[in-house]
């Protein structure tokens, strides 16, 4: 592991400080590409215009016409947190704007697979719907859209995934990544795309005289859901996404949120009054995702849709229980996957074991709902693009393996799958995704071909330096900033993918160390001559007396007293 410091442009830091930004924040923001204070303005008026998102105006007309005719609308969601929040935003938003007939359908991960498939389209048609609306899926559903159109359904696709070589023949496509779209935020999540469609629909309804600016529904009530789905989907937090998340957090901290969001905070033991992006990514998001992984995402969507606080708490408790089950399954799978990954090591010329450029593992006992999480854990451990496969549980598809992959910087996972598919025709039955996360299906008999094919592509694309894990940090932290109030200041900001949370690095003296719960390292350090406690979660190997650490600032509370501590992210020996 190598710890490196980010470039910090001093003139930008000075300019931000002169504009009134706190000196520490000025340094952190400048290192993340912020050049002027106005870029930090998270007001709603600074959001990108819906007019630049291709398809939103046509979608608004399509929906307004359908609502005027009382057509029956059916949203087809994805079974992750982005899909669940996008569905809840769609249902809530359409009803707010006057739609009388809105329902939803979410595919089953095991039986139906991902996206709008022909059988899903048939089920929507059988339900009596007139219009099918996808959220967080659909851009690759050429056959599913064709089946829906054949049933006489109007089809509106809202998605953010990368399109394939052929676009579906929907009535309207809304996707920032479709050809010809000039929307600047290519990283907007599926829930954000649906929110933008609703903004355009409200504008269209104003034009039609349904309401005016004084009487129009307030769509900002949906922003807590938009923020949750955006962070949970680990999309890049560009300026527009940061504004959406900041607006959602502001409302949650003020107590203005759907009953289900409040119930999820309670079930996770988190305080909504001081909500952070970490709560979205590591507390609420996993509980919603657990429903789609092990049970039925309907539970998660219903939790986000209900306005009954009692019902919301009941559903949140159920989701919490499912998440505990998910963690148990994940633990066993992770241990087995680590053993399988280690078995792929091969001796190099000096007899030192090194993993291949990409890792693919499969075990007949793996659960397909948890492969993505385990792939992320293996990727973190070995710093290699990783796919974890499980046998499909769908009837008649027992010989198919469903895989979920996670990547490292510099390796575009979906493009890599595309190259593997071209080099080995017939091996990949289906695939799709993003640069850092993707999914695919292969026949069990072709697993080794896929494994070798992906490793070959990774070997060609990734230089040796890229295969060494690096932690980017903000360098040393001045003693004057080692204060609890500044920890709170940092936590209030929007951090996440592409706008990394503050991580500092310095050489420290290790005074003492001990294992906690047999899997975490508790440390007493001397930092700049002063004692401080630290925790390194999920790490058990002892540290030398002096070591360079990468760490985040945190506040630990014990018996009502809050104390500063370090959360260790890595070490360079």
How are the SSEs placed, and which strands pair?
Layout: E1 2-5, H1 10-18, H2 23-31, H3 56-68, E2 73-76, H4 81-96, E3 102-105, H5 118-126, E4 131-135, H6 142-150, E5 154-158, E6 172-174, H7 190-207, H8 223-232, H9 239-253, H10 259-267, H11 277-294, H12 298-305, H13 309-343, E7 346-347, E8 353-354, E9 359-362, H14 371-382, E10 386-391, E11 400-406, H15 413-423, E12 428-433, E13 437-443, H16 447-461, E14 470-473, H17 484-492, E15 504-516, E16 520-527, E17 530-536, E18 546-558, E19 561-572
Parallel strand pairs: 1-14, 2-3, 2-4, 4-5, 5-6, 9-10, 17-19
Antiparallel strand pairs: 7-8, 10-11, 11-13, 12-13, 15-16, 15-18, 16-17, 18-19
Structure description:
This protein has helices spanning 10-18, 23-31, 56-68, 81-96, 118-126, 142-150, 190-207, 223-232, 239-253, 259-267, 277-294, 298-305, 309-343, 371-382, 413-423, 447-461, 484-492, and strands spanning 2-5, 73-76, 102-105, 131-135, 154-158, 172-174, 346-347, 353-354, 359-362, 386-391, 400-406, 428-433, 437-443, 470-473, 504-516, 520-527, 530-536, 546-558, 561-572. The chain has 17 helices and 19 strands. The chain is α/β, with parallel strands linked by helices and 573 residues long. It is globular and about 75 Å long. A five-stranded parallel beta sheet has the order 3-2-4-5-6, with helices on both faces. Strands 9-10-11-13-12 form a five-stranded mixed beta sheet, sandwiched between helices. The mean pLDDT is 95. Helix content is 39%, strand content 20%. The longest helix is centred in the middle third of the chain and has 35 residues, at 309-343.
């Amino acid at each position: 592991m190598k710890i490196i410091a980010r470039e910090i442009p001093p003139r930008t830091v000075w300019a931000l400080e002169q504009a009134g930004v706190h000196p520490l924040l000025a340094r952190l923001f400048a290192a993340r590409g912020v050049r002027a204070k106005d870029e930090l303005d998270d007001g709603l008026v600074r959001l990108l215009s819906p007019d630049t998102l291709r398809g939103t105006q046509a979608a608004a007309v399509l929906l307004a016409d359908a609502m005027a005719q009382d057509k029956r609308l059916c949203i087809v969601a994805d079974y992750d947190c982005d899909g669940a929040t996008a569905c809840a935003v769609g249902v809530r938003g359409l009803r707010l704007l006057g739609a009388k007939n809105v329902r939803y359908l979410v595919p089953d991960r095991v039986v139906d697979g991902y996206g709008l498939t022909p059988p899903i389209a048939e089920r929507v048609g059988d339900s009596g719907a007139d219009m099918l609306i996808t959220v967080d899926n659909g851009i690759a559903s050429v056959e599913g859209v064709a089946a829906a159109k054949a049933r006489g359904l109007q089809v509106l696709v809202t998605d953010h995934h990368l399109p394939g070589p052929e676009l579906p023949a929907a009535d309207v496509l809304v996707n920032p990544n479709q050809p010809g779209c000039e929307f600047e935020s290519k990283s907007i999540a599926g829930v954000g795309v649906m929110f933008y469609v609703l903004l355009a629909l409200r504008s269209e309804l104003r034009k039609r005289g349904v309401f005016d600016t004084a009487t129009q529904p307030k769509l900002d009530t949906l922003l807590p859901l938009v923020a949750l789905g955006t962070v949970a989907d680990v999309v890049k937090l560009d300026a527009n996404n940061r504004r959406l998340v900041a607006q959602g957090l502001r409302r949650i901290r003020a107590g203005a949120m759907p009953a289900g969001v409040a119930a999820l905070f309670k079930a996770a033991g988190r305080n909504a009054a001081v909500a952070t992006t970490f709560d979205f990514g590591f507390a609420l998001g996993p509980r919603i995702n657990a429903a789609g992984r092990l049970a039925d995402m309907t539970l998660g969507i219903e939790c986000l849709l209900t306005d009954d606080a009692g019902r919301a708490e009941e559903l949140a408790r159920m989701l919490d229980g499912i998440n505990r089950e998910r963690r148990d399954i994940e633990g066993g799978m992770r241990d087995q996957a680590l053993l399988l990954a280690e078995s792929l090591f091969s001796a190099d010329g000096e007899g030192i074991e090194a993993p291949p450029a990409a890792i693919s593992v499969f075990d007949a006992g793996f659960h397909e709902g948890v492969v993505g999480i385990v792939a992320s854990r293996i990727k973190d451990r070995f710093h290699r693009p990783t796919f974890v496969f499980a046998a499909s549980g769908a009837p008649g598809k027992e010989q198919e393996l469903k895989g979920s992959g996670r990547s490292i910087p510099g390796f575009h996972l979906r493009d890599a799958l595309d190259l593997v598919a071209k080099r080995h025709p017939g091996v990949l039955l289906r695939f799709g995704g993003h640069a850092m996360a993707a999914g695919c299906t292969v026949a069990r008999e072709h697993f080794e071909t896929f494994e070798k094919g992906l490793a070959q592509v990774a070997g060609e694309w990734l230089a040796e330096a890229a295969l060494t894990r690096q932690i980017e940090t903000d360098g040393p932290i001045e003693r004057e900033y080692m204060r609890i109030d500044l920890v709170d200041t940092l936590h209030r900001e929007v951090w996440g993918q592409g706008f990394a949370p503050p991580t500092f690095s310095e050489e420290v003296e290790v005074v003492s160390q001990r294992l906690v719960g047999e899997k975490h390292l508790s440390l007493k350090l001397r930092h700049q001559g002063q004692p401080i406690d630290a925790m390194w979660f999920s790490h058990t190997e002892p540290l030398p007396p002096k070591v360079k650490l990468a760490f985040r600032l945190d506040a630990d509370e014990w018996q009502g007293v809050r104390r500063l501590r370090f959360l260790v992210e890595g070490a360079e020996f």
